[in-house]
Design brief:
binds 2-acetamido-2-deoxy-beta-D-glucopyranose; Creatine Amidinohydrolase; alpha+beta; 464 residues; 19% strand; Creatine Amidinohydrolase, Chain A, domain 1; 3-stranded parallel β-sheet; 20 strands; 11 helices
Length: 464
């Protein structure tokens, strides 16, 4: 965790192919095993050096040992990133509803229509699985509309509001949209009711509402900003989940891509985080930003490792990426000549880091989403790798790992505001060679440098 990578004698990993040492370390904790075909022995080492275990420990399953060690070490940190963080409470949900109401007034809209999903979770704590579509139209419409026989189930969802929720039920042979239109929800309006529909709304519901006489508009403006601009409670959760995810990755793996991903997931779960994606890619397999290979590539001494992982805490997402060398590959001394295939990896690592730095500088109130992407793109293009930066520089993040505004060079109409949270994740992907991506999460803070929500950025390929 500090003091740099563990040091192993290079000769230990240069035995015959049959006894090649397979070295796994997670969180300064490691496992050394003679290849799969010969008898196994294991040893644990920490940041300060190698420590051999007594002989009887050698017969244990190295993968299980590695996983247990990974968990133990993450828990032994005391999980400081989880301090001062709490789930979203009822007052916060009420506050969201009030901000939504103000935004609807500002946009001259009478109601917001949302189906169970991320936005419904944000406003009413009901996710898609919690209100599964058993009946195709038995969906919630705020102030809530539900099939008559589902009305009680809707009430039992325990949506987090102090005031009682009004449910507009309909019978199966009625038209639900007309039922809503003629309900007392809208009876005081002296115009055609205007509805704004969420981006996750299914098309047939929008058409049904339109046919029933509602005026329909898509998600935009102040209403979209309610979820984009985070409160301090949301920022606290985002900081906790992103910092914790970096801690778990930084402190390090081995074996195959899939085995590392599984051990990392288990370590995250042990810390109370709930991983929902985990991409571990070695060398040329990282030239596809999101992988796609089967996870069977084995970690070797000079493997360039890319890990991109996301977890949930209290419904909020982390999304971070680190690219680094295994800790048993020692950092070349300054005065040593670096072999050219290593030198290119180091150069690209630095270029992507500089691109990330420039995109972060641009993450200020009143920058456009496009400016943030272009700032990173300029660095990478000037270094001659423009074609190899194949995706946007980042995206909003919150209750959903990828949410608006999206930081791409065409998004010139979206302005950053204080309280918005974004990933910055430039990358360079060299087919048949390797890929590098650095990803951190940041909070826009007026005209200042944005606030880092991932603890600390990577320092080098040996200090991710
Ligand atoms: C929101 O829902 C989760 C379960 O999905 C629950 O644990 C939590 O207590 C709910 N929050 C509130 C404020 O009701
Ligand atoms: C991924 O790695 C495997 C094992 O080394 C290799 O066979 C495969 O070609 C790689 N895939 C890509 C897309 O580079
Ligand atoms: C994974 O892909 C590699 C080629 O890239 C192949 O050699 C290997 O057999 C595959 N493994 C599995 C488990 O499918
Ligand atoms: C951003 O622009 C708005 C509107 O022009 C202005 O009120 C605000 O002060 C600007 N913010 C900063 C940090 O310059």
């Amino acid at each position: 965790r500090d003091g740099g990578p563990p040091r192993l004698e290079p000769t230990k990993s240069r035995k015959s192919p049959w006894t090649r040492l397979l070295i796994v370390t997670l969180m300064g904790c490691g496992l050394v095993a003679t290849g799969y075909r010969s008898s196994l022995f294991s040893s644990l080492f920490n940041d300060r050096g190698l420590r051999l275990l007594p002989e009887e420990d050698a017969i244990r399953d190295p993968l299980a040992e590695f996983g247990a060690c990974a968990k133990r070490n993450l828990l032994e940190t005391g999980l400081p990133f989880l301090k001062d963080v709490a789930p979203i409470d009822v007052p916060e949900f009420e506050n969201r509803r009030d901000r939504l109401a103000q935004a609807l007034v500002a946009e001259d809209v009478d109601a917001f229509v949302v189906e169970p999903g991320y936005t419904f979770k944000y406003y009413a704590n009901v996710s898609q699985p919690e209100w599964e579509v058993w009946e195709s139209e038995s969906r919630q419409i705020p102030h809530s509309s539900a099939l008559l026989f589902e009305a009680e189930r809707a009430r039992l969802l325990g949506m987090p509001f102090v005031d009682e929720i009004q449910i507009v039920p309909w019978e199966e042979h009625w038209n639900p949209y007309e039922t809503l239109q003629t309900s007392d929800v809208f009876h005081q309006l002296d115009r055609r009711p205007r509805l704004m529909v969420d981006e996750e709304m299914r098309d047939f519901i929008q058409r049904g509402l339109g046919n029933a006489g509602f005026e329909i508009t898509g998600l935009k403006g102040r209403v979209e900003e309610v979820r984009q601009i985070k409160t301090s409670k949301e920022v606290a959760i985002l900081r906790a989940v992103n910092t914790g995810t970096v801690e778990a990755v930084r402190l390090y793996p081995g074996l195959t891509e899939t085995q590392i991903a599984n051990a990392l997931d288990d370590a995250l779960r042990a810390a109370g985080l709930d991983p929902f994606f985990d991409i571990v890619l070695f060398d040329e397999n990282a030239s596809n930003p999101h992988g796609g290979t089967n996870g069977s590539k084995v970690l070797e001494a000079e493997t360039f490792v890319l890990i991109d992982v996301g977890a949930h805490l209290y419904g909020y997402s982390s999304d971070i990426c680190r690219t680094f060398f295994p800790p048993f590959f020692p950092e070349p001394a300054q005065d040593q000549g670096t072999p050219s295939h290593i030198a290119e990896k180091l150069r690209v690592w630095d270029i992507v880091f500089e691109a990330q730095t420039m995109s972060i500088h641009q993450m200020r109130e009143n920058s456009t989403a496009a400016m943030v992407d272009i700032a990173a793109r300029d660095v990478i293009s000037q270094a001659g790798y423009g074609e190899a930066f194949t995706h946007r520089v980042g995206h909003g993040i919150g209750i959903k790992a990828h949410e608006s505004p999206y930081l791409n060079k065409g998004n010139t109409g979206a302005w950053l505001k204080t309280g918005m949270t974004f990933t910055s994740e430039p990358g360079i992907y060299l087919v048949d060679k390797f890929g590098v991506r650095h990803e951190d999460v940041l909070l826009v803070d007026s005209d200042n440098e944005p606030i880092l929500l991932t603890g600390s950025r990577a320092e080098s390929p040996w200090r991710p």
